[in-house]
Each structure stands twice: as structure tokens, then as C-alpha cells.
Amino acid sequence: MSAFDLDRIRDESGAAALDYHEQLDSTNTRALELAAANDRQLPLLVLTNHQQAGRGRGPNRWWAGYGALTFSLVVNKPIADVAQKNWPLISLGAGLAVAEAIESLVPVGDVRIKWPNDVYLKGRKVCGILVETVPHQPDIVVLGIGINVNNSPADAPPELQAFMTSLVEMTHRALDRTEVLLAVLRCLANRLPLLKCDAWQLAEAWRERCYLQGRTVQLDTGTQRITGVCQGIDDQGALLLYTETGIQRCFGGVVAKII
Ligand code: BTN
Fold it and tell me: Among 10, 46, 86, 169, which residue's Cβ finds the most Cβ atoms within 10 Å?
């Protein structure tokens, strides 16, 4: 028997196709392969009970212990109808959807978005999001989402334990991952379409949840390191840093340090 209620997911997820595996190296890698083959209907949901070699942004890996929720959603323009230059907003839109889903399921408060693609619960990372594009398929995007649900930080590699949390750690009760998945997909379906013309509505919501607000941040953009006090996130999804030379709008990069 599967750990997920696959019939219910087929009925309620809104996905046109489901690709389920008991184990998988990476749902994003599988989703990219399927998207490249172009023979599945979209939205396509790739789901696994246990992801063994999850990928994070850049060279990072994503650890997912047993009980984590890891999936990728392949969506096309009618769902995420966003101009290509605005695709970075998709991580923020997805982060907001995950934050709202978590809040609805686990009312422990303090669910925040750490720009650009993490969700934090009470100051620790509970979810990572990896948005990828498909070569030669400019209208398709892969949204990879990993949420620590029933996995315990105590089982994680030691270097991660202090920075992460899971829903079970917060609530002391296991959650049904089918419920969590469906809640996230519902919130995504509510939020992603707003990216096209009503991104300001999302911007208000992610500003309210900005984890970095008021903190001094060192941002590594790949070409330079910018240090400044975070003034929030603007309507285009840029991180606003108040630096020695004034406000800088940062569209990409990795938060290297929070001081
Ligand atoms: C990050 O924190 O840098 C992003 C982590 C994204 C992890 C998810 S888990 C499901 C999907 N498949 C992957 O290989 N990665 C994403």
C-alpha cells in the first residue's frame, strides 16, 4: 500500500497527470525528463514517498528524511502565465502558497518567507523550493517543493539540524502527507494565477511574511557580495537592501549570511 492516497490525489490535485514513485533520486530531475519528452499532460505532478538525492539551488543538495513531502509540479503558461522576465516571482508565489498551506494545517504561527525560495517556521527552514526551466520549452516551468513534514531534524545530517524544523517537530503529531500535498496544491492554484496581472496582491502578502525584514544581510550575487539592512521585497520580487550607497534592488543571489 502506498504512503499516499493516490486515488484522492488523482481526483483532487488538479493535476492532469500523476507520476508516482516509491523512491526517486530527485522529483525535479524526473520532472525535467518528462517535460523534455513532452508526452504527458500538464499540469504534471511528480511525487515520491522517499527522495534520495534531492537537489537545491546551485550546488546545494536537499536532505529529505523518511516522512518528508517532496514533489514537483510541471506547469505551463495557462497556469503560471507569467512573462519570462518575471519567472523569479514564481518562487515567491510558490513560497507564499506553501506558507499559507502550512499555516492552515499547523496553527503554531510565525510562518515566513525567506527570500527568494525558502519557507521558515519559527525561525527555522521547513521548506525549500527549486524552480527550473526546461531547455527548448520556454513555456514550461518545474516547481520543486520539499517540505519537512513527518521527518525529524534529529535524523538529519548534523550540520543541518540547528537550522531546520519539521511540522511534526512543531506539533508533536504526524500529519497525513496527502492532506499536506493537497493543501499546498490548492494554495498554489489560488496564488500562481495572480502573478500575471495582480502580482502586487502577492507582493503585499510576501512583504508581511518577509523573514529578512530589518535584518542585516550579506547577499552573494555571484559577481559581488552586497551587505545591507533588508527593507523588504518590492512588487517585482526584488530584495531591497539599504546599503552604504543607498537602496539596492537585488533580483538574484544567495543569502550568504544574516548578521
Ligand atoms: C533549496 O533549498 O535550495 C531548494 C530545495 C528544493 C528541494 C525540492 S524537494 C522536491 C524537488 N526535487 C528536488 O530535487 N528538489 C526539489
Answer: 46
CB of 31 closer than 8 Å to CB of 74: yes
Mean pLDDT within 35-42: 92
- Dist. CA 205–CA 80, nearest whole Å: 18
88-105 and 199-208 are packed helices; what angle lies between their axes, rounded to 10 degrees? 60
Query: Please, what is the angle between helix 177-191 and helix 88-105, to 10°?
Result: 130
Q: Which of 171-185, 197-211, 244-258 has the lowest mean pLDDT?
A: 197-211
Measured from the Cα of 118, ligand 1's closest atom is 2
- For residue 206, what are the contacts with CB-CB under 8 A and spacing of at least 6? 92, 95, 96, 113, 233
Decide if pLDDT at 142 tops 90.
yes
Probe ligand 1: pick from 126, 130, 165, max atoms within 8 Å of CB? Answer: 130
Rounded Cα distance, 250 and 226, in Å: 9
217 pLDDT band, cuts 50/70/90, is: very high
Q: How far is the CA of 69 from the centre of ligand 1 (A)?
A: 10
Q: How far apart are CA 163 and CA 161, in angstroms?
A: 6
